[in-house]
Write a structure and sequence with these properties.
By secondary structure, the protein is an alpha/beta fold. It contains 12 helices and 12 strands. It has a 7-stranded mixed β-sheet, sandwiched between helices. β5, α7 and β6 form a beta-alpha-beta unit. It is globular and about 60 Å long. It starts with 13 loop residues before the first helix and ends with a helix.
């Protein structure tokens, strides 16, 4: 087969690789402790689903037809109102484009800004989807190492050192995937200032902006509407990952370009999902967050305490938001003579505990594993980490 040589830049997701093994084991009836996949562990609002199903039956044609590529006007208006409420920045529907999950928004954003040879700054470690797409489009990645001793923030000097006129964009995940880090306001302001000074974009992935257990989210767009592109999704706090619904908030002029490009990535966001998202924003969001956040916080505390209890030589930063922890297992892995990739594969196959190797997110993730506390309840979290510790030889 005459396959595109450019397809080689897509190595296959380490997250999906672990998940395929989990699916295989679970189909055979094996109990797996799932700390691997970054999706909510609680179902969507039951009241929302009942409401949606009723509307779907009554408006089956409307809920099944094509929509505008940038989403139905009612949803874009609801997103604008919601985003304005939380950010304090006046947003209109002209600043919003709806996508098939934030994955499509990421792709269309890169397609809208990257020319051959453009540089894009990524933190290291960071979410693993960005780099392959940048490479595919002919861009070049510049990585800035974050520092575990700084709570996974980069230093101001390191960020400034990579900036040049060749830089087209800086990508930040806040709250972070995989580390669980929340950036402080001084760093966010610095990144916005650098984007402005170098006429670049700050791509601000804020998928977990409502999943805070301490403090509150900082909206980068309030500092500069023209240079900040805010990526969002309905996959996390509404617990609708399989419905594939996301959106971009940006300056109206950029949205026009984004919409033109996006017509070629997907004709329109899933129509039923758009109406479910509309219901969430209009009727169920605040109640659902009140119900689910305490549960996730309890699971987060349980995972953190279990890691400290069963793996005392591991270092781990306690997250203030998001769904992840990123423990450093270097002392244990070096004694076993294995790296984080081999460890993650053997852990799920041998003792059925699923984690993601940290090096999948960059060189800075070596000897770490990404673990989510969202899926399992407190008892299973404790048990799974105890089994992991036994596998690592902890007595």
């Amino acid at each position: 087969m005459r396959i595109s040589t450019r397809s080689d830049v897509f190595p296959g997701s380490a997250i999906r690789g672990i998940n395929e093994e989990v699916v295989r084991l679970e189909r055979s009836g094996v109990k797996v402790y799932g700390f691997h996949i970054g999706q909510p562990g609680l179902p969507p609002s039951r009241d929302l689903l009942l409401d949606f199903t009723k509307n779907l039956l009554e408006k089956s044609f409307e809920y099944s037809m094509y929509t505008p590529s940038n989403g139905i006007e009612e949803l874009r208006e609801a997103i604008a109102e919601d985003y304005s409420k939380y950010s304090g920045v006046k947003i209109t529907s002209n600043n919003v484009s709806v996508s098939a999950g934030s994955a499509e928004a990421i792709l269309a954003t890169f397609m809208s800004i990257i020319d051959e040879g453009d540089e894009v700054v990524l933190l290291d470690p960071t979410y693993l989807m960005y780099e392959p797409i940048i490479n595919y489009l002919g861009g070049r990645v510049r990585r800035v190492r974050t520092r575990e001793e700084l709570g996974w923030e980069p230093s101001e000097e390191d960020v400034k050192a990579v900036m040049s006129r060749r830089v087209k964009a800086i990508i930040i995940v806040n709250p972070d995937n995989p580390t669980g880090r929340v950036l402080g306001e001084p760093m966010i302001k610095l990144l916005v200032d650098l984007a402005r000074d170098y006429d670049a974009f700050l791509i601000y992935d804020e998928a977990y902006r409502h999943l805070y257990y301490e403090g509150s989210h900082i909206y980068a767009i309030k500092y500069d509407m023209e240079h900040v592109l805010a990526l969002n999704t309905f996959s996390k706090d509404p617990a609708l990952p399989g419905w594939r619904l996301g959106y971009l908030v940006a300056h109206e002029d950029f949205i026009k370009v984004f919409n033109r490009v996006k017509q070629y990535t997907n004709l329109n966001p899933p129509t039923p999902a758009q109406y479910a998202g509309l219901l969430y924003l209009r009727k169920y969001k605040e109640k659902y967050l009140r119900e689910t956040l305490p549960i996730y916080k309890s699971r987060m505390e349980t995972m953190y305490n279990a890691l400290r209890k069963y793996l005392p030589e591991a270092s781990v930063v306690k997250p203030r938001a998001g769904l992840f922890m990123f423990p450093n297992l270097k002392p244990y892995l070096e004694r076993l003579g294995i790296d984080d990739k081999e460890f993650s594969v053997r852990l799920v196959r041998d003792v059925h505990v699923a984690v993601v190797p940290g090096s999948a997110f960059g060189e800075g993730g070596k000897y770490h594993v990404r673990m989510t506390f969202a899926r399992e309840d407190e008892r299973s979290i404790e048990e799974g980490i105890r089994i992991m510790a036994e596998f690592l030889g902890v007595k």
